[in-house]
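Issue: ligand-bound run for methionine sulfoxide - logging full I/O for the record.

Environment: standard queue, default settings, no custom constraints.

Inputs:
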Amino acid sequence: MRDYREVATRLRAICQGERDEIALMATFSQELFASFDGFDWVGFYRVVSPNILKIGPYQGGHGCLTIPFDKGVCGAAARTATPQLVADVEQFDGHIACASSTRSELVIPLMDNAGGVRAVLDIDSDQPDFFTPADIEPLTAMMADILTPIYNAEAYQGEGV
Ligand code: SME
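Outputs:
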């Protein structure tokens, strides 16, 4: 089982006090990408209008820019507000192949406190069957810790340097 405790601690320290969505998503993606061999693409797709996901900060090869809720693993996670664990992408009907090297995938919705889906975290691996259900809880908890709070307070006004 993968141990997320170190990366969770580091992220919490680095992101302390930060409220900007892009800054947080970029840091979150980079930390995960750098921490685990086999995480070959890590990034966010954001809900930008009803039923549309748009690419956000990510690490890895280029990802497709727009994903409707009725397409792909990311769309399924956003539509159902449920994590999607795909052991073999070739068996997932409608999988969107951004990289032909991807073999397995884990997509977890990022929720606000009102139960709305704000984005999805997409992690792809070039290895088959790379993720397990045990990955879901720590990643969900890290997003709830680092990202969910920014959607629940007053609108972020920037740092006003
Ligand atoms: N495979 C995803 C699309 C995103 S990329 O792989 C980065 C999907 O089927 O939703």
